[in-house]
Amino acid sequence: MKKIAFSFLVAALLLVSGCSKENGPVLVPVSLQVNLPGDDTPIYTPNTTRATAGEPAVGFDVTFTNTSTQAETTVQTDASGTARAELEEGVYNIFVYGVYQTNGKENVYQYTLTSQSVLAPAEGSGATGVTFPAVIPELAAVSGGWVIKEVYNSGCYSPAGKAYSYDQYICLYNNSDQVLYADSLVVAMSSKFTNDNMDQGYLSQFLPGRVVPDLLIQVPGNGKEHPVQPGACLVIANQGINHIEVGGKVDLTQADFEWYDDHRLDVDVPEVPNMINLYGYSATINQLSVQSNRAYFILRPTGDITAWMNSLKTSIVYPSGTSKEMYPIPAEQIIDGVQLAPKGSVLNNPSLPSAVDVGYTYVGENDGDSGSRLGLVASRKVKEKTTQGRIVLQDTNNSTLDFLPNQEPSPYSVKE
């Protein structure tokens, strides 16, 4: 009888052991080593303690994002520069972020690893977890001045149930504490899709050094004509009318500028000044991509604009064998940018270099359902409100952290 009972006990233990993975998620220990850039730039920690270049990066945030569930786990690097966590098995994107001071100026350092597998070590392997490749964060080109507050590109459904996209706009924001002049600023839309599943090597070949645009529109002015106060917006509309009256979502009669194509399908609103069209993908009218899978960025060329455009001109050959002259923008000229991609994307095929944006934001819940993104925007988060009442927007050069998806359009103000 005791022998039978013992046999049942062994069988029960084996059953529990064999089903342990099914009864709960397997947690895998992971580690990532983060070191400071090995250059000659003097780097100081936020508490002004000297840190020599090449040493472990202490106190950096490391965020592990499960690409299937979007669950995030954030830890900080320890005194050895190592981030340690326990993660469920899966595929993860890893974002490293830290702020250091150099000569009293805050510098943002960041790095992204995509599609990193986390699997429990095989029995008998001797391994106790997963060690990712060591990383050295890059200095991010945080603007400190102009930022993109929101891009309303998807349009909306009219009361008649038809798609309406003439109410598109881009809102820029003066994120500084000084008056900035918008004269000669260029707003661009990337030609390349973000996280595309097709072969766009003819465009990605230019990354990370240059970005190929599908649209280049410029604010007119001689340098001092269009001041924008600290904490104020600059609205650039597709058409500067009250779209609510004709089936749209927003009233753009107060827009600062509109982009206008001299074509019968477009409307030139005399009360709203026109942008200067430098380049457009369409022979008729140019609109923002309603699919929410492009990048948008801003820059300010210097010198003669015609000479600048000629210096960029490049012949791009498509897979079909046809060619087209386009204007790849040097990454170092980009002031700010944001990547839009479908929710849950694995950013393995970005449209902007990591120095501009290491993440992405989205509009809509389902890439296959275009209706879920209509009438919504991704809007930049508020970082803080100063004692003088000025709102400072978040700008870490990671749109995943900097933007709130699926927001109501707000072209003229910031929602606190």
Helix content: under 10%
Largest sheet: 6 strands, mixed
* Count of helical stretches: 5
Amino-to-carboxy terminus distance: 73 Å
Oligomerization state = single chain
Domains, number: 2
Mean pLDDT: 85
- Structural class of the secondary structure composition? mainly beta
Overall shape: it is: globular
Strand elements, count: 31
Widest beta sheet: strand line-up: 21-20-14-11-28-31
Strand content: 25-35%
In the predicted model, the low-confidence regions spanning at least 5 consecutive residues are: 1-20, 40-51
Supply Rg.
25 Å
Care to describe what's here?
The protein is mostly beta strands. It has two domains: 25-139, Immunoglobulin-like (Sandwich), CATH 2.60.40; 146-407, no CATH class. 9% of the residues lie in helices and 34% in strands. It has five helices and 31 strands. It has helices at residues 2-18, 20-23, 201-204, 305-312, 399-402; strands at residues 27-33, 43-44, 50-51, 61-66, 72-76, 82-88, 90-102, 105-118, 130-131, 138-139, 146-152, 156-157, 163-164, 169-174, 180-181, 186-190, 210-211, 213-218, 227-228, 233-237, 257-258, 276-280, 295-299, 314-317, 323-326, 329-330, 334-339, 377-380, 382-385, 391-393, 403-407. The strands form ten sheets. It has a six-stranded mixed sheet. A five-stranded antiparallel sheet has the order 5-4-7-8-10, with no helix packed on it. A hairpin with a 5-residue loop joins strand 12 (156-157) and strand 13 (163-164).
